[in-house]
Design brief:
Subcellular location: Cell outer membrane
Protein name: TonB-dependent receptor
Pfam families: Plug, TonB_dep_Rec_b-barrel
Keywords: Cell outer membrane, Ion transport, Iron, Iron transport, Membrane, Receptor, Signal, TonB box, Transmembrane, Transmembrane beta strand, Transport
GO molecular function: siderophore uptake transmembrane transporter activity
Distance between the termini: 44 Å
Number of domains: 1
Strand content: over 45%
CATH class: Mainly Beta
Length: about 725
């Protein structure tokens, strides 16, 4: 706490001193860049049409590449720290299909699954090298995005960098703690004299260890070229490619945490006191997973006339993985803390998505200030899942003491030798194909200036071809559903202060389920999530203060609930219901000359209606984030900037259930934490020097999705950029 207080005092004092000593020169353009990058939240994607944040009835959080550059962040996983109400639960494991990072939004599990409004899951660590802006659309968004990629809590959309009309770019090298080094480049060039054909490539290579094993040599390579051809002032072609190749060991995951098996210990702080070494990796060498992601995106934009535009999009995404997936269990015997070491790897595991989407945008003004904006489109999405998991049929690799052991024996050679013997090997395979056909329309009607009425509707048909999950056959099915939405925005003060409300809907098809001990099956009804939300938005002082406060209420019904087993098949019913309510406050502001603030506070109350308890996958009730930065924009120190940021999360119960054997409630808690980060940079026309120190108070903190995952201790990185 003393470190936090001292840091805050130093920060405030430095800001005050800087303000007093700064001279007033021409800085308008720099200020406009800062405001546009750090404060402005307008989007062309959230409603599949250009819409200002102040006139949008849905809540959108966003963070630009400029903020990531200032904070020296180079992955999407790290960028999440700037999004209000978002809690990261897992970093990427790189397994094909499900290996991307997991997050919580409004009490529901979500993943980063969208790019430029299209389906493009990345199942590895996502390099931010080609990121222009990260957008997070809050609440169920099935009307415009469908049932297969959007969580009931929201969705994550990556807006990528685009080619532009002049030659330019930069090269950056970064290095620092835990044997981290990185090289990246961003090069843009017109390919023709008339500047109709434009090319841009962003690429990066990163090598790093971990705070537990600095010689880990995890490697990450990203290559993301893009091409734009402006055939005329009406016709444009865009092609983008993303390749993410990783060879890495996933973060340390502790499963099976329960006070029953831990002599009553029910939280991570007490487990550390009992002997769990936060800094120990518990593995040997070479337990890597090799993973590849390839995304290809094509787009044709055509301006039919001044009022009608067409956008034709084709997207193909493919993920592959092969390698180890170590994880751990914890237990106690004779008051000694023990660790069970396991592995669930992948072998030639694949999953792919192919999408074709056509949108038409209409924008008409008529009468006295009336306006109508419409997007109408159709979408085809094909999903092919060929996930291949392997594990030892003997269970754990071994059991070792959590203190002072030699952990090097759990390594790639030893585990590989066991897998090479078919007698030791078990498989969990998935074979399934799903074709999804959708049509949708969304309309924003402005009957008078400042009043916007939003109505939308989607029809979606899911055509499952059936297949196999593990040893169980899955029957084909076809299921359709409607997804409506409605919203109302009234700008009490035009372009400055608005009140809004929305109804949002989403759904999910779960296929067939077994409903009795005789093994009979039935097609389940779609899950349904309905959100009602209301609040206020501000855009004050010429766009310098952008704030949103909202209250939401989400009810999700028709969850499949397991009541028993028929052989190895779960017996289920459709009585599951979850209620999520909460409040969010988010502020992006350029407060005084050179000083900007990104911050927010979120409270969520999620309840499983059957048990009355908070689901173990709902995350923390309270979340807070901030990043305060100051940049000298004129005077002798022009280009110098520095900042401090932090994240708070309250206790997170990753086990929360009634135990009938003990006639008591079993809980296990990841303790609350407050992590602080700091950064500084010096930016000139040709060079940029950056420095950051993450977790500078050296906080021990854990995240998890029914697991406990220790996070990085204090770490410093520095970078040098040459611009051309």
């Amino acid at each position: 706490m003393k470190k936090i207080i001292v840091s805050a005092v130093v920060l405030v004092s430095t800001f005050a001193y800087a303000q007093e000593n700064d001279t007033v020169n021409n800085s308008k353009n720099i200020e406009e860049v800062i405001i546009d990058a750090l404060v402005k939240k307008d989007s062309d994607y959230s409603n599949k049409m250009p819409l200002k944040a102040i006139e949008d009835p849905q809540v959108l959080s966003s963070i630009s590449y400029k903020a990531l550059e200032n904070q020296l962040l180079y992955t999407i996983d790290d960028a999440y720290r700037n999004i209000t109400g978002l809690q990261k639960m897992w970093n990427a494991t790189s397994r094909a299909g499900d290996g991307g990072s997991f997050i919580i939004l409004r009490g529901f599990v979500s993943t980063g699954s969208m790019r430029n409004g299209l389906v493009a899951p990345v199942t590895t660590t996502v390099d931010a090298i080609n990121l222009e802006k990260l957008e997070v659309l809050k609440g169920p968004s099935g009307t415009l995005y469908g049932s297969n990629v959007a969580s009931y809590g929201g969705l994550v959309n990556r807006v990528t960098k685009k080619p532009y009309g002049t030659f330019g770019g930069n090269v950056t090298v970064t290095g620092g703690g835990y044997n981290t080094y990185r090289a990246q480049a961003d090069v843009n060039a017109p390919l023709t004299a008339d500047k109709k054909l434009l090319f841009r490539v962003n690429t990066a290579y990163t090598n790093s260890g971990t705070f537990q094993k600095s010689d880990m040599k995890n490697s990450y390579f990203a290559f993301t070229p893009s091409l734009t051809y402006n055939a005329s002032d009406r016709l444009q072609f865009n092609v983008e490619y993303e390749m993410f190749n990783n060879r890495a060991v996933g973060e340390q995951l502790f499963f099976y945490l329960s006070p029953v098996g831990l002599n009553g210990i029910d939280n991570m702080k007490d487990l550390e006191k009992a002997g769990l070494d936060y800094k120990q990796s518990f593995i040997g060498d070479d337990l890597y997973t090799t993973a590849r992601v390839n995304n290809v995106f094509g787009q044709i934009n055509y301006k039919i006339n001044d009022n009608i535009k067409s956008s034709t999009n084709i997207n193909n995404s493919h993920s592959f993985s092969n390698g180890f997936g170590p994880y751990f269990g914890l237990g106690m015997m004779d008051n000694q803390l023990l660790i069970q070491r396991y592995d669930q790897g992948t072998k030639d595991s694949k999953k792919s998505w192919f999408q074709v989407q056509q949108n038409f945008n209409f924008d008409y003004t008529f009468g006295n200030g009336m306006r109508n904006r419409t997007v109408a489109g159709f979408d085809f999405l094909q999903t092919k899942d060929r996930s291949r998991f392997i594990y030892l049929n003997t269970g754990a690799f071994d059991t070792v003491s959590a203190n002072g052991g030699d952990y090097s024996g759990f390594n790639g050679s030893a585990l590989g030798a066991l897998y090479n013997n078919p007698a030791n090997l078990s498989n969990y395979d998935i074979d399934s194909d799903l074709n999804t056909y959708s049509g949708y329309v969304s309309n924003v009607f402005t009957p008078v200036s400042g009043l916007n009425v939003v109505l939308g509707l989607r029809y979606e048909s899911n055509d499952s071809k059936g297949g196999k999950v593990w040893i169980n056959d899955t029957d084909p099915y076809n299921q359709s559903a409607w997804s409506p939405k409605a919203g109302l925005v009234y700008e009490i003060v035009k372009d400055k202060f608005s009140v809004f409300g929305n109804y949002q809907n989403s759904f999910k098809s779960n296929g067939y389920y077994t409903f009795n001990a005789a093994g009979e099956t039935a097609l389940s009804d779609p899950e349904r999530a309905n959100q009602f939300e209301g609040g206020f938005k501000t855009n004050l002082i010429n766009g310098k203060i952008n704030a949103t406060v909202s209250y939401y209420d989400i009810t999700a019904k028709n969850y499949l609930v397991t009541t028993g087993y028929f052989g190895n098949i779960a017996i289920q019913n459709q009585t599951g219901e979850i209620r999520s309510k909460g409040v969010e406050l988010e502020v992006n502001a350029y407060l005084v000359k050179g000083f900007s603030l990104i911050g927010g506070l979120a409270y969520n109350d999620t309840v499983d209606q059957a048990t009355g308890m908070r689901p173990a996958t709902s995350g923390s009730k309270w979340l807070a984030n901030f990043n305060a930065s100051y940049q000298f924009i004129d005077g002798n120190l022009k280009g110098l900037g520095f900042g401090v940021g932090g994240n708070y999360a309250s206790d997170n119960k990753i086990l929360n259930q009634f135990n009938p054997t003990r006639n008591a409630q079993d809980t296990f808690t990841l303790n609350s934490f407050f992590v602080l980060n700091a950064n500084a940079y010096y930016d000139t026309k040709k060079f940029r020097i950056g420095l950051k120190v993450d977790n500078f108070t050296n906080e021990h903190y854990w995240i998890g999705y029914s697991t406990a995952n220790p996070q990085t201790l204090i770490n410093a990185l520095g970078s040098i950029t040459y611009k051309f």
